[in-house]
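Comment thread on ticket #2218

A.B. wrote:
> Attaching the input chain for the structure job we discussed in standup.
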Amino acid sequence: MKNSNFNKDNIGFGFMGNGQVVWDRTIHERGDYKKVAHVQGKANEPVKEGEPVEVTLFTSQLPTDYTIQLKAYLSTFYSITKFTTHGNVIHH
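C.D. wrote:
> Ran it. Output below, let me know if you need it in another format.
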């Protein structure tokens, strides 16, 4: 994946459905920032800092070192209970 070096300053957050979407400003897809993950907390409630969440990667094509660094960065905000891609739990 082109330009896939992790840098926390390039990570952005927004709302999508019942959670937060995480994107990377250095990776582009169809003229927009690449969405790399979705953060889901309790059903029908906004995601709150420090609460248990599940993180789902939108693609399994991110380099392993990128996903490790992304998980570590997201762990500074959230208590991650599950880190998956396409339903497969990622153990780092």
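A.B. wrote:
> Thanks. Noting for the ticket: The chain has one domain: 8-87.
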